[in-house]
Amino acid sequence: MKNLFLHYHSRNEFPTVSSIECFCVSAHSEEVYVCSNNIIYKLSVTSGLLKTLFSLHEYYDTVIPAVIHISFNSITESLYLAFKNGDVLTFESSSKEIQCVGCVESGLKTVQWSPDQEVIVMVTGKDTVILMTGNFDPVTEVDLHQSGFGEKQFITVGWGKKETQFHGSEGKAAAYAIPKSLEHLPVLDDGQPQISWKGDGSLFAVSTVRPEANSRKILIFSRDAVLQYTSEPTAGLEEAMSWQPSGSLIAVSQRFPNKHVIAFFEKNGLRHGEFSLPFAQNECKIHNLSWNSESSILAVWCEYITGKTCLQLWTVNNYHWYLKQCVNFSAEKKLLGIEWDMLHRNRLHIMCEGLCYMCYDWKWITNCSQGSTKADGAFVAVIDGAKILLTSFRHAVIPPPLCGQTLQVSVPVNCIMFAPCKKVNNSCITDRADDNKINSNTLCTILTDGSVVVFSESSSTKCHVQLAACNLNGENAAELHHWLWMTEDTFLCCRTHGSVSYLVEISVDLNAGKMNVRKEIHTNGIVVSIVLIPDGSGAVVQLADGILFLYKFDQDKLVQYSKVPEACETLQVTLIDGKDVLLGLSNRNRLYVDGQEVANNVTSLVVHSEFILLTTLRHMLLCVQLNLKGLQSLIKGQCSPGRHIERGARLVTSVAGDTSVILQMPRGNLECIQPRPLTLHVATVYLDSGQYGAAFKLLRKQRINLNLLCDHQPTEFLANIDFVVDELKDPTWLSLLLSELQEGSVTLTMYKEYYTHLEQLPRILNNKVQVVCDAMRDAMLRRQDADRYLLPVLTSYVQKQSDKDLADALIKVKTVKEAERRNGQLEISADEALKYLLYLVDVNRLYDVALGLYDFDLVMLVAAKSNKDPKEYLPFLNKLRRMEPNYSFFLIDKHLKRFESALYHISLCPEEEYFQECLDLVKTHKLFSKALDVFPKGSSRYLDIATVYADYLLDNKLYQEAGIMYARAQKYHKALTAYQIAGDWRETLLAANQLQYKENKLHELCQQLVSRLKGKCQFGEAAEVLSHHLGDFEESIAVLVQGRLWNEAVWSSFHYRRADMIETHVKPGILEHLEQLSGQLTSSKKQFTAYKTRLNAVRTAKEQLQIEEKDGELQEEYDLYSDTSSIMSSTLTASYTGSHTSGHSRRSSKNRRKHERKMLSLKEGSPYEELALVRALHQVITTTYNATEEVQSLCLVLLRFDFDKEAANLQKLLSDLIQEMDNAKHEIWTTDLMEQPLVGFGPDATVNSLTTRFQNQGLTNSNLALLEPNFRFPPQNKNISWKVSILSAV
């Protein structure tokens, strides 16, 4: 779908040089060497300067032979000339010396260097092939007319014999017919041999005339000049021949009696296709064929019998050959030579009579209409000689070489341009109010004869017809290039003289068929592209050096517009939020935005009406929104995720205002895709304008989540719910929409990246499914034809996923069934509705819902439409029909596991025989609280339920609550027992009071309570029972002393006037407590010191071991580390430990933790002794911190009885111990122990990182995991104000 467009053109003429024999191009230095009148010139392509190198008279004194070949060797920096008499001369650029490197006595017919310039092949006058090295050392010489086929002679086993082939209408006699002799050499054939190398230099082909038959054949030789293949006998072959540089086909000119073709041969000599040339019989001669470096363009040099010459450029796609360009040359400027550039893939060097050198640099473009509205047909025009293949991709995707319509002209077309489109705020204005002939679908063609033909789309037939044809007065328009249609009556183009281009503005009168040059403007460079600015008031002109100029109609000069680092093959100015933005794409895949490079992997670029479309080297299609936010994301390289496309796919065009994007694959076929961003954009446009039907069709077609319909604008959707139903109309579509509803908003999840350009995202609709289903159901039921919306109504019930709504759906079906009985057949019958429900809901669930309605007719209706066996449900239903209603409802609820409802219905059964089932239901399903609410308080059933509930609580050891329930059930004996077990002496005595216990029994009960409270260490409560209810004050004080409740004991001694017990019980108890607590603190200090000392020793030995391992001085005798052998074990067996523990993966988590705790042993030499010591130290310090409150209480009591010294010593002992522990915390809990992450293994871990951590820290993550998280950090003392200030001075 692409055409060849002239990207760069330069022209240099030197009238002083009359004729040219031959020329060559030095690709690396961009210089052209020309042989003219026995003088060798050097022409600089960049500067256009001509320099004389030398004259052949310097070497030849007399007659100078004809030069047949000239070439420049970039390896040796030498110029080589081959002469017809057999001489080969070299001219070195550095020494300026001319040398003769060889001479062939029989003369030379043709010479050709290999592509790598290491081998040269010559055909001599005796028809021999001479092979030489690059230094002209002979390698071999072979006869050109060999009798054999070659080394690769085909092997046949008889299957391919002529006698065994099918000959069609000719019959079997054709199998034995003698073949006719081939036609003789064409009249216009000069009979000279031609040489062409394969691109990799492994083979070369020679086209030569067979002496015995006077016809041509093609011989394929290896690099060593060994014949490999010979072409099959072919009539009409001519001398023009060229081998594809990057392919396997050889192009050869062939003349038939009725046509002239370019035939293709494979390297094995077999024919492989052809295409016809647009010439009459013997009208012209094919002088030469030449492929460009990437084998995509075949140049055909034609010479007419009238003396005129032309150059045709042919390309192939989808096995169809297109004539893309045809350059005509007059007899005065006859074409003398062509040569493709080796470095620039599409650059062609041309030499004409009078040393007129021209350089053509072609590029591939897509000629497509530029409209931004739906009136634009998205037309793409393809040049094919004198035909324009036109396709509208808005209406159909037609793969090439087919097309929507073919426009025929008289001569080949060189250029196509579509009518301009003025854009204002991303909208397109193409038509005037009084004229609709010219719009974005109108196209103009520039023909090879200079005429201009305009085609416009017919409003009636929608086909393009010729609107006008005109010629440029006094000038040939074919010599102009870079055509641009600016306004309806203005064209803009260029002409080039030397290395300078002139901008030409042409006025056009289509009605009169006239064109005139208005003005020409000097550009100070060579123009490579001209593009229209969005408002249509001017154009941007790009020069070869990347400088951009702005041209406006009302100015006669160019104003510099911008600059890009390199000339861009694709250039476009687009309007983004009221600002003109320049987009450029170079042939090196660099994308520029306003001169700034933003990407280096872009292969094609198309500007859609709302998006910038890009393809990348990673075979992705990117869609960038056409606004400033999207442009910033493109500049920052933060585009949304793209879409994968086929390798090598390129953008052709996009349909404005639509979702279609056309891609062309490397082999030529087309693919129409609809990218998700474009689809979502069009869908949101539909939704914003209230076109819910169009939006639904688009979303459904593109398989986009239909939740977008309501999530895009939830408030407007609900407000226009009646209009939504009117738009969708079809009940099937409404059902589909309802069935896809889901909670949440797809604008925040699935399609979040497509809503990032909004400043405020759509709000989330709470309980969306319920709200939308209810709203749509109400809207459908309000319609006059509500009956036809029965299925969507049922869907709205089902989608809410609750049994209540399913029940409503079944009731709706039942209502329809009853209406059928009364009124006859409805639009949607109840049977159809029920079948639809069974499609949406599992039949078993629907059966249970129907059963839960206690409507046996409805149950039968559902069961009849299901696959259930009647033997399964009929006996059950018949049994229920015969039962008492409440009891049948109970059985149904129990069957459906609706136990609370079952409890309610069984409670309504007055018969006592059902109450036992009620109790069983309550006990089985633990419905005690519900049962208490169902039965009246004080009733016998209520008391029984309370008793059962209390038994349940007692079994679960909830004694306090069990006592309450027993009391509520008036079971006071059991309540007393429950309270007694719970230790609640007050409730126990209250229960005893309810039972009217006598004094002796009450005294015995109190004694039991005291014993139980003392067993639970509730000494204060036990003392209260003794003093208040038993009157035993002495024992009460003794119990307080036992519980070390010193303040209460002292107060009770004085309150009950037992001061003697201060001396007999309280003081001895205090001193005993002091001794015990002092001993405990002393023991903790010793334990802390021992653990800390051991920990330091373990860590010191570990560090020493690591140092020795690094230095490679680890001793074999480990006895030196016998005291700290745990370090050796943990270091050297870390991996073994991990694998060992992993072997016990079948243990339960509880047993695994128990096993891990056992591994942390304080035994010296254990693998994890360090972790065990840290845990032990943590426990010792925590115990010491917890003793502060107890010490404070004891010190106050000691001060009460004047034991100041003892109290001070106790406080100092604890204070010193806490201070010592606080000072040692930073030694125990090191930084690596506290900051080391819990997880060290994973995808980011490496062997080196784990080894380094293992060596530097000594504790791997797996070992550290054995230590509970709370032990990895030092404990904190929360009671910081525990000291008694009086003792600080003691």
From TrEMBL:
Compositionally biased region (Basic residues): 1143-1157
The keyword Nucleus is assigned to this record: yes
Region annotated Disordered, chain positions: 1134-1159
MF-aspect GO terms: tRNA binding
Segments forming domain ELP1 N-terminal second beta-propeller: 382-652
Domain ELP1 alpha-solenoid: 676-880
A GO BP annotation: tRNA wobble base 5-methoxycarbonylmethyl-2-thiouridinylation
A Pfam family of this chain: Beta-prop_ELP1_2nd
Ranges of residues in domain ELP1 first N-terminal beta-propeller: 1-341
Domain ELP1 three-helical bundle: 1060-1228
GO cellular component, one term: nucleus
Main location: cytoplasm
Keywords linked to the UniProt accession: Cytoplasm, Nucleus, tRNA processing
Database matches in InterPro entries: A-sol_ELP1, Beta-prop_ELP1_1st, Beta-prop_ELP1_2nd, Elp1, HB_ELP1, TPR_ELP1
Ranges of residues in domain ELP1 TPR: 887-1049
UniProt pathway: tRNA modification; 5-methoxycarbonylmethyl-2-thiouridine-tRNA biosynthesis
Record localization: Cytoplasm; Nucleus
Family statement: Belongs to the ELP1/IKA1 family.
Function: Component of the elongator complex which is required for multiple tRNA modifications, including mcm5U (5-methoxycarbonylmethyl uridine), mcm5s2U (5-methoxycarbonylmethyl-2-thiouridine), and ncm5U (5-carbamoylmethyl uridine). The elongator complex catalyzes formation of carboxymethyluridine in the wobble base at position 34 in tRNAs.
Protein name per its UniProtKB record: Elongator complex protein 1
Organism: Zootermopsis nevadensis (Dampwood termite)
Species lineage: Eukaryota, Metazoa, Ecdysozoa, Arthropoda, Hexapoda
